[in-house]
Amino acid sequence: MSTPPPLLEQKTTAPYGSWPSPITSDVVSGASKGLGGSAVDSHGRLFYLESRPTESGRSVLVRGGTDEPVDVTPKEFSVRTVAQEYGGGAFSIFGENVVFSNYKDQRLYIQAIDSKDSAPVPLTPDYGGPSVSYADGVYDRLLNRFIAVREDRRESSLDAITTIVSIELGDKTIQEPKVLVGGNDFYAFPRLDYEGKRLAWIEWSHPNMPWDRSELWVGYISDTGDMYKRVCVAGGDPTIIESPTEPKWSDEGELFFVTDRKNGFWNLHRWVESENSVVPVYTLEAEFAKPLWVFGMNSYEIIKEQKNLIACSYRQKGRSYLGILDKNKSTLSVLQSPFTDIMNITLGVHCIYVEGASGVHPTSIAKVTLDDRSSNVVDFKIVWSSSPTSSEYESYFSSPEFIEFPTEVPGETAYAYYYPPTNPLYQASEEEKPPLLLKSHGGPTAEARGILNLNIQFWTSRGWAFVDVNYGGSTGYGRVFRERLLQRWGIVDVNDCCSCAHFLVNSGKADGERLCITGGSAGGYTTLAALAFKKTFKAGASLYGVADLKLLKEETHKFESRYMDNLVGSEKEFFERSPINFVDQFSCPIILFQGLEDKVVPPDQARKIYQALKAKGVPVALVEYEGEQHGFRKAENIKCTLEQQMVFFARLVGHFKVADNIVPIRIDNFD
Asked: Is there a contact between 111 and 98 (Cβ–Cβ < 8 Å)?
């Protein structure tokens, strides 16, 4: 690992993009571990799921919170589910055991946490391959069974059957799971009340995504474990547009959940069972939840020691806040926290564990101890970090600047995080403006978040400006902002990215002749569409991006198979917004990166646009990775992608030589 050089009093003047930096591609690819959720057992011990690029992306359950974390998962296992392809909710801890999904065969296993000699034991049948996945499970202590979402792809990936099932734990023989809830397209968040008599869950149907319209149901369970009655709590009224999410029972039997029925923002609500009515707990123009891309999200916790209080997080204008909500008084107290971005909250014993980050903190877990009387923070301690050595490079960090910029629609604005070039040893001449790399996030219903990301710092510490855009359609800004993209994907996102780039050029923060764009998945589509339909950018990089919308609809997985119906529209729009159909309009260099096991955006997408651009004579390169799916998890591939993007842009647009010793790949129509 590189060691930062000593700081000099006088900076060296050198062109933007050519500065040496200790934040190397090895540092980026090897230092950042992923976080797949956290939990606390009955003893108050913290567990978290850690994905490791240096172990080919293997996900390991770790018992942490102490000076010496202990791996729980044996080396031959990896805790990961591919339910809905994006996974999440891959493990659940109860008593002395953990139930988890194993990546290789997608079966559920049970393992004793503390026994060194205890090997994981399979709970679900072996179907001869990873064709059935489980996620988001909970333990039924009354009937000693495990209840989870199951996705069955044995007949078809596009028409997978999703249900809520129960798996018996007491019988030593492996039995076929029992279907408790079925018949709709999708399910999530099965949650039992304390007595095991009521099960809450979320469901939705095509063509909706869960953030468009969903329903919250409660089922009543008999002594034999069957469901004898069902009640729709929220989302069933066709006159109310809402997307309830994250149901949670209190120990007293109250059902809480988050929905956006009142003001277009996800706020906390409560179910009045006797009247089958819904009442708001607290109303604010802020998001108290996130879109359901992955299972197992946890945005709030009911504090057991003070039953009227709820620890929660909410997001407002590009920043997360940690708060304590008094459900009886309907008041919200904001807690002091160094995190500006919060992902999940886990209830501990006399504390909460917060998954969060900031402009100087990488994704971390903090133990937050609260005062019993005032609920103020008395101690804030980071107990896990995705990049524990990142602080060594703090003098090289570029701090994100939250910006609001005008779009092409009069009176409308969008948002972004701008990172200026930053290096304590180097500066450019006053006459030069920096090259800009604009990132278009995926989803497209996702959100750029202004947190410490060594991937971004790799660019800025070498003299690049970087901007992460929240175009119309992004989450975090309410339903109205999110729905700007309906029927206009490939238009609003592209226009907003171009508007952001022009805004930065006009502000003197970027060189208009050295504007580059990058993005993965839906962000890769926005990248290709911007290069096909606009002339703003001079080069682009598409990571597992979409070139042909019609082909994507035919080949993608069930979860997103109807997503584009609302985002694009008619067959005519599918054709007119597909970059592959307008290759003649491309003139800028493009580099493509693709995983060969990608089920979300299959490899044909990258190969088709690559061949077409190559035939047209546009400088183009394609990098394919064996064993990678949607998103790159292996350190060597993360490293290669980062390095080759930079060298590609430097050679074709930047007009400078990078300081790193990188062997460039061959570029068709250029070398």
From this structure: yes
